[in-house]
Amino acid sequence: MTVQADTLLIDGHNLLFRYFQGMPRSLISPDGTLFHGAYGAIAGILSHIKQFQPRNVIVCFDTPYRTQRSLLLETYKANRPQFAPDDPENPFTQLPFLQKALQLLNIYTIEMPGVEADDLIGSYAQLARNRNQRVMIISTDRDLMQLVDPTTHIYVRRGKKELFYTPELVAETFGVTPAQFIDFKALVGDTSDNIRGVPGIGPKTAASLLQTFGTLETLYANLAQVKPRIATKLREHEELVILNKQIVTIDCRVAVESSWIEQPQTIVPLSARDIFAQLGFFSRMGRDPGDLPVSAD
């Protein structure tokens, strides 16, 4: 499928984690350090650039510092695996390799203290939207579905299957529109981020409620029209729903560098192999990386 985008927005930590899990562990640096995840992520980014032909590419990274969401909810993302900094099972030991490779390619990268990658992506998507640009987001993070509109889509590859999340596909997949996705998540929560939902209200019930009432505000104003069992749960957990809505809402007003999407970007024409050779990673390879399957699935 041929789809073009003016701006390509990439969720850096998400991409690195997926390639760390999906790539063969046969890429080892001279000092014995694995770099398969970083190599796969760069190969994937170059493939996306070829596929979508963007004017600009921005890779957004999460902050290592506490965010507003973790201040609102102490247990936010507390269920994520904890690794020692030098643990070979820690995907993010390869983060410096990925960032150095992106610098060699002249691809824009951004990380801001206290700001999550979702908010950086949302803010750039909003800037691009204001300039009538077509945006493609590369991430499997479902929180980003709230950003989808007629000109902002999300690309996900599952094996050989490509998914382009348009407003229509979001509605078909989740039963709600992108504009309703925040309210949907506020009701069902998010186990991946350790956000509790309303007990007894799963995705189907939440979607049905929003299909009927449109928004959380209208739903809570009309609880008399809801089945008593569901209405009771909603009343008992109203504070939770309000908090959840704050947490899952992406901030699209972060002060990011707007010039990055205004002027066409010149990306250095290097292959993943060229880049990692320049960085000195290939002296202990068992085979040519060109023979490796590049997959994040």
Automatic annotation (TrEMBL):
Q: Where is the signal peptide?
A: none
Give GO BP annotations, semicolon-separated: DNA replication, Okazaki fragment processing
Gene Ontology MF annotations = 5'-3' exonuclease activity; 5'-flap endonuclease activity; DNA binding
Q: Which domain of life is it from?
A: Bacteria
InterPro entries in alphabetical order: 5-3_exonucl_a-hlix_arch_N, 5-3_exonuclease, 5-3_exonuclease_C_sf, DNA_polI_H3TH, FEN, HhH2, PIN-like_dom_sf
Residues in domain 5'-3' exonuclease? 6-266
- What is the protein's known function? 5'-3' exonuclease acting preferentially on double-stranded DNA.
> What name does UniProt use for this protein?
5'-3' exonuclease
